[in-house]
Amino acid sequence: MLRFVTAGESHGPSLVAILDGLPAGVPIDVQRLQQEMRRRQLGYGRGPRMQLETDTVELLSGVRRGITLGSPVALMIKNKDASIDRLPVVTQPRPGHADLTGAIKYDHRDIRNVLERASARETAARVAVGAVCQQLLASLDITLASHVTALGSVRATPAVAASATALRAKVDGTPLRCVDSAATKQMIRQIDAAVKTGDTLGGVFEVLAFGVPPGLGSYVQYDRRLDAILGRAILSIHAVKAVEIGDGVLGASLPGSSVQDEIFYKKGAGFRRSSNRAGGFEGGMTTGQPIVVRGFLKPLSTLRKPLRSVEINTKRPVVATVERTDVTTVPAAGVIGEAMIAFELARAVLEKFGSDSLRELQRNHQSYLRQVAQF
Ligand SMILES: Cc1cc2nc3c(=O)[nH]c(=O)nc-3n(C[C@H](O)[C@H](O)[C@H](O)COP(=O)(O)O)c2cc1C
């Protein structure tokens, strides 16, 4: 079973991830890992640390001469700002962060012991893991992309993308990783206004996965429903407060006739749908259509116009400590969403097609695709 854990504090020496359960024989292109790390750092509205960091992944184990060995892959990202032992004690919990509950739960009198690990800096390690998983998925022609569909109160026109490569090419060079340039201008205006007032903004990102075969996941048990697993993966990202699959939210207010994807058949071409409102899932299984998952982020918790709080020792009212902060991170969250979906899809394909070697995986995948085509 594919699994990963991460370790590391925001201002510790480094972040580490161990990805266990990858098959042997997967080619790993280190340059492409670094590109994924850069994509997490894109986006207008990020704070100064993004310029400081320029994350670089080092492969410590599990890969030899660019090929996975089947043993655990350890990945390390060094922090440029590794000042954790010199940083001052924090006793003023910031609303909207793990600060107060984390301090109570772990009995810390210095909230820094909480915030250093609760910080979304940890997601850099997840992006490294996701980048490895994306290389595994690419060997089965499964590809992923993400983009921003809303920021603050601005909504972008929906993206029409035939492939992950086309969508990535459209958005990755833009200031907010958004296909709609008119909406981007309005989003930037909202970010600039939030900078002036010391406020923050949330928004929505969408992750798409192309080339996914039908039948990943299962309806037979609650915990094998892959849509539910992807939902959890997206909700595990810091500041994500809601998740949507396909037109899930819109569908709740429409009649069934406007929501289901009708089934057609053409000799030679097989089964097809003329719509993908279900976002690539029926009965907890992939349908073979592109997967469409959205994550909804709340506005970031730390405001430069700080919120009211209480000092944990004196119990006196204070204004919360301002750590370094971004105004919005929706473009980056999309890249993290891609990483999480890539990990879960990699896990699902290894479960279905075998996980010892890439050759075994590809052979079983191809034979299943033939079986599906003949159905
Ligand atoms: C990529 C990324 C960067 C983030 N950066 C910040 C930040 O600079 N300031 C902030 O207040 N919150 C930031 N957050 C959100 C907080 O980490 C998050 O709100 C906090 O850990 C509490 O978790 P919760 O919102 O899921 O309850 C960021 C989130 C992500 C995904």
List the helices and strands and how they pair.
Layout lengths: L2 E5 L6 E7 L9 H11 L8 H5 L3 E5 L1 E2 L2 E2 L4 E6 L20 H8 L5 H7 L4 H16 L4 E9 L2 E2 L8 H8 L9 H17 L5 E8 L15 H10 L4 E6 L2 H4 L11 E4 L3 E4 L7 E2 L2 E2 L4 E7 L10 E3 L6 E3 L10 H24 L4 H16 L2
Antiparallel strand pairs: 1-2, 2-6, 3-6, 4-5, 7-8, 7-9, 9-15, 10-15, 11-12, 13-14, 16-17
Bound molecules: flavin mononucleotide.
Flavin mononucleotide binds next to helix 10.
Task: Describe the protein.
The protein has one domain (3-373): Chorismate synthase AroC (Chorismate synthase, AroC fold, 4-Layer Sandwich). It has helices at residues 30-40, 49-53, 99-106, 112-118, 123-138, 164-171, 181-197, 226-235, 248-251, 330-353, 358-373, and strands at residues 3-7, 14-20, 57-61, 63-64, 67-68, 73-78, 143-151, 154-155, 203-210, 240-245, 263-266, 270-273, 281-282, 285-286, 291-297, 308-310, 317-319. The model has no long low-confidence stretch (mean pLDDT 95). It is built from 11 helices and 17 strands. A hairpin with a 6-residue loop joins strand 16 and strand 17. The strands form 6 sheets. It has a 5-stranded antiparallel sheet. It is of the alpha+beta class and 375 residues long. The relative contact order is 0.18. The radius of gyration is 22 Å and the shape is globular. Helix 1 (30-40) packs across helix 5, helix 3 (99-106) packs across helix 4 and helix 8 (226-235) runs antiparallel to helix 10 (330-353). The two termini are 29 Å apart. The structure holds flavin mononucleotide (FMN). Flavin mononucleotide (FMN) binds next to helix 10. Residues 47, 96-98, 118-120, 123, 237-239, 300-302, 325-326, 329, 332-333, 336 line the site of flavin mononucleotide.
